Amino acid sequence: MPTATLATILAELARYEATETPASPISVAVLRNHTVETMVPLLKYHLFSNGLKPTVDLGGYDTIQQEVLDPGSVAYDPRRDLIVVTWFLDHLDPQSRRRGWDPAKAIDTVDSTLSHLCERSESTVVASTFLPPLHADNELLSGSLDGHRVDGVRRLNDCLRELAARHSDQLYLVDIERLVQRLGEDRALDYRFQYMNRAPYSKDLLDLFAQQVAIVGRLSKGQVKKVLVLDCDNTLWGGVIGEDQLEGIQLSAHDYPGRCFYEFQQSVLNLYEQGVVIALASKNNENDVWEVLDKHPECPLGREHLATWRVDWNDKASNITSMASELNLGLDSFVFVDDSGIECELVRQTVPEVTVVQVPETPYDLPSLLPKSGLFETLSVSSEDSRRTQLYRAERERKRSQESFRDLDGFLRSLNLRAEIAEATESEVARVAQLCGKTNQFNVTTKRHTEAQIRAFAERDDAAVFVMSAGDNFGDLGLIAVLIAEHADGTGTVDTLLMSCRALGRQLERVFTHHCLSELEARWGVESWQSSYERTKKNALVENLWEELGFQLEEQSDEFKSYSLATSARQSPAIDYVAVSTPGNAVC
Amino acid sequence: MNERVRQLMAQVLQTPMESIDLQTRQEDVEAWDSLGHMNLCLALEEEFGVKFGDHHVIEMTDVGTIVSTVADLTSN
Fold first, then answer.
1. Domain of residue B30, CATH code
2. Which residues lie below 8 Å from residue A329, measured CB to CB, with a gap of 6+?
3. Could you say which of A73, A93, A237, B59 has the lowest number of CB atoms within 10 Å?
4. Which residues contact B58 (CB under 8 A, 6 or more apart)?
5. Is the distance from CB of A355 to CB of A223 less than 8 angstroms?
6. Residues of chain B whose C-beta is under 8 A from some C-beta in A?
């Protein structure tokens, strides 16, 4: 597993820095008790390659606690998105090298420092775990003996895990031990510079560390990959189905190389279960492909796992673009996997927003291809995720049915739409945060609220978080819309109004907004509403939403529009084909 | 060899290549502090496929010594 040399990365970084990009900025602070200066260019490089424009500030050497306690420190810059905290155990507690070392003091420092940081800061925090000593006395007992140094480090890492569970929407861990396992001792640790410069981690280890931090950075900015588009021949199986026939292709749980393709498909199914939308783009006769998916005895992937597909002889760039519009998802959330260098290059050049992954020539590298890429990493797993492909399949059926109706109103009536509107409950907070984090198109202010911030809104008497779940004849859409509002001095303000794109085109936004505002008017007695539209690269869809909802434009610039509306002038939408229910079971 | 070393130093130490010659010493280049030196050693090792001992790291305080150390290690 060769990694790029420092010189290569510095050259690439200089190229990135010299290029004007529309990438969104990200500001990172690194607090550390060991020398990690080498990581700074690596981290910047990986943030750039994740589509971000980074600034990285390094805290002082071995001043983690001081900087966490000092409100004026590098950690608490108001624009800070991400704070990395990395401790090296030998420096945190020099006694940790001694037999019978008690980790209690180190645990206390780590616990209080990170708790304080998470409470004080709204930034996302990434902490590295502690590396157990690779060489210790009583090695044979290291797995079983209580009080062994290795056991002490395990307890320290358990403390980190508990902290991460307690701050599950804010604190993430980079497992240094696993990174060292991947590289091996000789490549991961540099004892020379550990003792000469207090820099124990090699450049290759810092590189893997930086890659993981960059992924957290990308995800914390809401840039999530949602769709996996797969080629078929020599990607899902070895060989060409049109020529080799069902018996001739390589796909098997037992034989080489068929087993590599079999396990690759299993890795795809794992992503499906995690909520990634799976699609096919293959130049083939459609029936040949179905023959494999429906009839091959050892083909894990089935038709039921696919949200959509393009199996024809059109070029794949156009096919991917048309799938994006069918699914109502941005091209930048697409990942395309193909073995053909030409197809990969065509997609790269024609639709550069799409992330392209080429199948390696060595089949045995295929099973680890997707997990290793980190493309489908997530910061949380919600129960909605695992249903997403089903939801998109239902959408597909709906679209088919739409085509058979002559007028939209008749179509919407035929859907038997139902909407459940209520204040968010505790169990819905993760889903609300997820929607805030990744809804790009139907999102008027694009505020990326975290779970903690949403909970704070929900707990305030002068604020409210409403959600809408919807469904129709074709199935449940799930929780698809969020409205956050607050009020002061007789005026209500809409902080957030967003809706998942899979619910577009049903006028549900009108029903939802009307219902929430009516309820809040009755509760708060507000006399007027204020709202705004903040332009991003992706939310042109709702540019005129407030006008459509009857709001008066107050001020306007290129980036921003503000509106107001007297509650007495607000009208209810004339929509009678959505059955609205309001369960009174809100908890928070 | 001289060229490659100078080029690498310019890149790692963020300094113009023209300002580096065989006589350049550590104190002549602002970014060539102890951490710059560590990155420089790492980059040289990667570039030339060599491994420095601690005495090399300590002794390589001018460009001439770097070039001769790398030459020694690559000829073995």
1. 1.10.1200.10
2. A226, A227, A277, A501
3. B59
4. none
5. no
6. 8, 11-12, 34-35, 38-39, 42-43, 46-47, 52, 54, 57
What is the extent of the structural domain holding B18? 2-75
**In sequence order, what E strands does A129-263 have?**
171-174, 227-230
Over range A489-498, report the average pLDDT: 96
Return the minimum-mean-pLDDT range out of A18-27, A65-74, A527-536: A18-27
Residue A537 or A37, more confident: A37
- The owner of tokens 């206390």 is A108
pLDDT tens figures, A543-561? 999 999 999 999 999 899 9
A455: its two tokens:
């909970």
* Residue A483 amino acid letter: L
Go through chain B and tell me how many residues it has: 76
**How many domains are contained in chain B?**
1
What CA–CA distances, in Å, run from A284 to A54, A305, A318?
A: 43, 19, 16
- Do B57 and A196 count as a contact with CB atoms less than 8 A apart? yes
- Tell me the residues of chain A between 148 and 207 that have a Cβ less than 8 Å away from chain B: 192-193, 196-197, 199, 203
Q: Which residues of chain B make contact with A10, given a CB cutoff of 8 A?
A: 11-12, 43
Q: Is A15 near chain B, with CB under 8 Å?
A: no
Strand partners of residue A175: none
Judge whether A85 and A109 are in contact, CB under 8 Å. no
